[in-house]
Amino acid sequence: MNKVILMGRLTRDPDIRHSAGENAQAVARYTLAVDRRFKRDGDATADFIGCVAFGRQAEFAERYLHQGTKIAVTGRIQTGSYTNRDGQRVYTTDVVIEEQEFAESKAAAAERGYTTAAAAPAPTAPTPAPEAPADGFMNIPDGIDEELPFN
Questions:
Q1: How far, in whole angstroms, is CA 1 from its chain's centroid?
Q2: pLDDT (tens digit, 9 = 90+) per residue, 41-93?
């Protein structure tokens, strides 16, 4: 079984490209800084892991992820190799993303000093708490469609 679960922060904004051809799709590459559980003096405290997402996952990354965002991802390790311009063989290891989700709220990120690129403007007046409808489902206020990662 080839399954990876990681939680960390993006080291920079994702690099988004689009494949060529008849079935063109988005490809997103980013690096996650994943804290190490145990730390020794003089050792690095984080690992930097390359991730690649395709299709809808890449489009999600393009729209919502940016430097400093804390996310949890699942995927699989994929190795590969290529010959660089100097004729040397270069070996690669990436995590191919299957699922990704936010690991902290916008408010928690703001407290830690991480800003959001697509942050909504702060409301001018406090909004009253919504009353629970009789059917038990929460009412979603109008005008927040842009903030939701799905439609």
A1: 23
A2: 777 789 999 999 999 999 999 999 999 999 999 999 999 999 999 999 999 99
Residues β-bridged to residue 46: 35
The SS3 assignment for 33 reads: strand
CA distances from 46 to 42, 49, 110 (A): 12, 9, 22
CATH of the domain at 59: 2.40.50.140
> Cα dist. 150→44, 93, 97 in Å?
37, 30, 18
pLDDT per residue as tens digits for the range 1-55: 999 999 999 999 999 999 888 888 999 999 999 998 877 777 778 999 999 999 9
Residue at 48 is within a domain? yes
Confirm whether 139 is domain-assigned: no
Task: Let me know if residue 61 belongs to a domain.
Answer: yes
- For residue 27, being part of any structural domain is answered with yes
